[in-house]
Specification:
Oligomer: single chain
Structural class: alpha+beta
CATH class of the largest domain: Mainly Alpha
Helix content: 40-55%
CATH topology of the largest domain: Endonuclease III, domain 1
CATH superfamily of the largest domain: Hypothetical protein, domain 2
Length: 314
């Protein structure tokens, strides 16, 4: 890692430390693998690049526990990027209050400061989740890194990072180049379709979650799993139920009912009492690293974490 000395930030901002708040766990899933060229972690925070309507930016966020969160930004998009930081780190949410349940009550006691995060960029969020279709988390992280390194431009600022891929980057690369990066044909076709629908999908930010989910599911290659993961994990929506995941029903049924195996229907039944806060329950399970017992050793990983396989779009 190299930081260019003497390069002062273009803008700065600070936010008071909310209570309760868990900065480390809340921001843990912003990075896609240790080699992510868009997000780089530090002991007290992270660097992240972004595209804004005013231009590209690089932001450094640092946590001062029980005091404040500081951010510095470089580039023509510095002001807009700083305005997005509260969503990136979950400050747009209040502390969670879930319906009473013995499991989630205990988890909230353990993780009272966990929040959902909103990355802000719908196209970036979709690309990231599409790359997780049909493969393990490690494979998805590898192809994300390869894609960014191949199509994206350097970000402004003192850190050697790259910008997230823009629709024009994907269109310019073309199908053959994307396949050559190790991305399967099916996912490449989906990425290419998204690149040509970019202006349409940005409307998602202004839509209620149900309408946003329905719009996403109408896009070629986007099914319920991809739509729910994009909205919940990358865009901070608390409502989506994730159907079509290979392992998640087992995890939910094990966590909430002590049942080592489950399916989408049983998972939906157990999550129904939580209403429009289902993804917050799933995020608590991720924070606690809960997973159902395995019947036999398998090449698999946990939902949203290294090694986890996603289901095909439906």
């Amino acid at each position: 890692m190299r930081i260019i000395a003497g390069m002062s930030p273009d803008e700065r901002a600070s936010w008071p430390w909310p209570a309760p708040y868990d900065f480390a766990e809340t921001t843990r899933l912003l990075r896609t693998g240790r080699g992510d060229p868009v997000v780089r972690r530090e002991p007290d925070g992270f660097w992240r690049t972004a595209r804004t309507a005013e231009g590209p930016a690089t932001v450094r966020v640092r946590a001062r526990p029980r005091d404040r969160i500081d951010a510095e930004a470089w580039g023509p998009g510095a002001v807009q990027a700083l305005a997005a930081v509260p969503g990136w780190i979950g400050l747009h949410e209040s502390p969670w209050q879930l319906p009473a349940h013995p499991v989630t009550d205990r988890l909230l006691d353990r993780f009272p400061g966990v929040r959902l995060t909103d990355g802000g960029d719908v196209f970036e969020a979709l690309v990231n989740i599409v790359l997780q279709q049909l493969v393990t988390w490690n494979e998805a992280a590898y192809t994300w890194r390869r894609l960014v390194e191949h199509v994206s431009a350097p970000a402004p600022g003192p850190q050697e990072l790259l910008l997230p891929p823009a629709p024009e980057d994907v269109r310019r690369a073309g199908v053959n180049e994307l396949v050559a990066l190790g991305i399967g044909h099916r996912r490449v076709r989906t990425l290419y379709e998204l690149a040509f629908s970019a202006s349409r999908i940005e409307r998602i930010r202004e839509l209620p979650t149900a309408a946003a989910f329905n719009l996403l599911c109408k896009l070629p290659g986007i099914g319920q799993w991809t739509a729910a993961m994009t909205l919940g994990l990358r865009l901070g929506r608390p409502e989506p139920v994730v159907f079509g995941d290979v392992h998640l029903p087992h995890t939910v049924c094990w966590a909430l009912a002590g049942e080592p195996r489950g399916n989408d229907a049983r998972m939906a039944e157990l999550l129904e009492p939580f209403g429009a806060q289902v993804f917050r329950v799933l995020r608590l399970l991720l924070a606690a690293r809960i997973d159902a017992p395995r019947r036999a050793p398998k090449r698999e990983v946990r939902f949203g974490r290294e090694g986890r396989a996603g289901a095909a779009p439906r």
